[in-house]
Design goal:
The protein is mainly alpha-helical. It has helices spanning about 20-45, 55-105. It has one domain. Helices cover about 75% and strands about 0% of the residues.
Length: about 110
């Protein structure tokens, strides 16, 4: 159930993703990308006159895979931090507004 402390219900599409699952998702995405990249290299490089062995293509793919996995994971965490920070600012603004209204109402003369 959504509330001020937990604005997204469990199981919803916008629920926070754990760091571990972010890493698993990034790794899966990059491993699939690695296979595709190596296949594309094997086809595209010769078209451009670049002649490399399969081992060299695998090594080049591995270097870009590590860079891609780090990029994907770090960007995921950055955007999660931005999302969480935004929710905290919104909640703080709501609490301030509620406190202000509460103080104002408390200052009304009682009849």
């Amino acid at each position: 159930m959504a509330n001020i402390r937990n604005p997204t219900p469990e199981g919803s599409a916008t629920a926070a993703q754990s760091r571990r699952m972010a890493l698993v998702e990034a790794a899966t995405n990059v491993v699939v990308g690695y296979g595709l990249a190596v296949l594309v290299q094997l086809v595209a490089f010769p078209v451009f006159g670049i002649r490399l062995s399969v081992g060299e293509n695998l090594a080049i793919g591995a270097v870009f895979t590590v860079a891609s996995m780090a990029r994907s994971y770090l960007l995921r965490r950055l955007f999660e931090r931005i999302r969480i920070g935004g929710l905290q600012r919104e909640a703080a603004a709501l609490w301030r507004a509620a406190a202000t209204i509460g103080l104002w109402v408390g200052q009304l003369p009682m009849r």
